[in-house]
Write a structure and sequence with these properties.
Two copies of one chain form a homodimer. By secondary structure, chain A is mainly alpha-helical. Chain A has two domains: 1-58, Arc Repressor Mutant, subunit A (Orthogonal Bundle); 64-193, Tetracycline Repressor, domain 2 (Orthogonal Bundle), CATH 1.10.357. Helix content of chain A is 73%, strand content 0%. Chain A has twelve helices and no strands. Chain A has helices spanning 8-31, 38-45, 49-55, 59-63, 65-80, 88-101, 106-118, 121-140, 149-171, 178-190, 196-200, 205-212. In chain A, helix 5 (65-80) crosses helix 6 and helix 9 crosses helix 10 (178-190). The radius of gyration of chain A is 20 Å and the shape is globular. Chain A starts with 7 loop residues before the first helix and ends with a helix. At the A-B interface, helix 6, helix 8, helix 9, helix 10 and helix 11 of A face helix 6, helix 8, helix 9, helix 10 and helix 11 of B. The structure holds a DNA duplex (30 and 30 nucleotides).
DNA sequence: ACGCTTATGCCGGTGACTGGCACTATCTCT
DNA sequence: AGAGATAGTGCCAGTCACCGGCATAAGCGT
């Protein structure tokens, strides 16, 4: 599946790319993201810095490679099947499918990347922005003329928050394999309908104004 | 209000801080965030780079100063009045109050900062992370033992998405003053209850699984 | 085997950020 | 008011991410 009809050049490139990701995750985990230098990384993989920067946009980029892979697959899914008027289930389905189509061993790299992210503010920032970029592209997809874009954004944010919650539970789990991730996703997404009653008690203007002058 | 019982040292420090923010916004807007160098900035304000970095954590930090100010005020409000079992109106009220207590001229700086942010990916990343940091601190506040943290996070994300929506509308508005911002906030937060019916149609497992094997 | 494309390496430069240390301005206490 | 404590500031030198340009080599189609 990895080398399906690829030319030798492309395969070589992919190989060094994977080597860079693996070594980066190892190195960053061992020494910390800030303390580890790119020189160490590229020397370990035996490529030049220039090559690194042609494959990755930044030091953060390589650390978040597994996550970007996932969102790329998700993006492709959503573009292939643009969501209908009730998009939430479609988003969820696309993400589930994306998780399933990741290569073998992806979950281990992803987990390492997440752990790194949790203790590295710079990585959090990049992760959030990438997610926001994907969201921006996805929101516009299959949006009927009369439909509200705000509504879409709200639903997507709920979906993302549930996903992040599932991730956090998964990471602190004893068995961080793909089945466990699926199960955490089930739990998190199942909680979404329970939110409805809390929204009908949404702020009316009188209450809000009272807060202003408090 | 600005110089309320502050020592001379503190007032001086605040003055250079404000000068740095103003000049930074001017410079970044004129030349672009990446193209403008810190040397230009500190030379214009006549301070050393070292001083700059004692006041701001990074180049991004100074560009997002108005936003950080707002979230600091918001944070303080929420900490002063921890939200009850239906936290959404409390969050909204806290943000409205925070907007009102900003100093004169804040909205102009904030708008400039937002415009800059919109065309500078690095600023988006930092902005999102800061917001996430605030969220993390706020979620735990006033959370009763039996209450679900996930539920809180979901509500806060809705709240934040509505806020960002209000900001975007405000920015493209003809009159970006504080009254207009209030009005946009009203509109955006009023849309939240409409989301409830869309949640009852949340994903069931069968639908989701179908997507997986598609 | 031959050009053509593409990836890579090397080199030098820029600019954000940091630690150390001396210096000066402000504060505080008597 | 003056002396010592307490910041805040400037200067300098260093590290490191990142990006041009150009030469080289490795893979590709004919």
């Amino acid at each position: 599946m990895t080398d399906a009809g690829l030319t030798l050049r492309e395969r070589k490139k992919l190989r060094t790319r994977h080597a860079l990701v693996d070594e980066a995750l190892r190195l960053f985990t061992e020494k910390g993201f800030a303390a580890a230098t790119l020189d160490e990384l590229v020397e370990a993989v035996e490529v030049s810095q220039r090559t690194f920067f042609r494959m990755f946009a930044s030091k953060e980029d390589v650390a978040l490679a597994p996550e970007k892979e996932l969102w790329a697959a998700y993006s492709a899914r959503v573009e292939a099947h643009p969501p209908g008027p009730s998009p939430l289930p479609d988003y969820v389905a696309a993400l589930r499918a994306a998780v399933e189509e990741m290569a073998d061993g992806w979950e281990a790299r992803f987990l390492t990347s997440r752990a790194l992210c949790d203790r590295t503010p710079a990585l959090v920032a990049h992760s959030l922005r990438h997610c926001a970029d994907v969201t921006d592209r996805v929101v516009a997809l299959g949006l009927a003329p009369g439909q509200s874009e705000l509504e879409r954004r709200l639903l997507i944010e709920l979906f993302l928050t549930a996903w992040r919650w599932a991730l956090a539970r998964w990471a602190e789990d004893g068995a961080p394999d793909r089945a466990a991730l699926r199960s955490r996703m089930d739990d998190a997404f199942a909680a979404l309908p329970d939110l409805a009653p809390l929204l009908s008690a949404a702020p009316r203007h009188e209450e809000a104004r009272r807060g202003v002058h408090a």
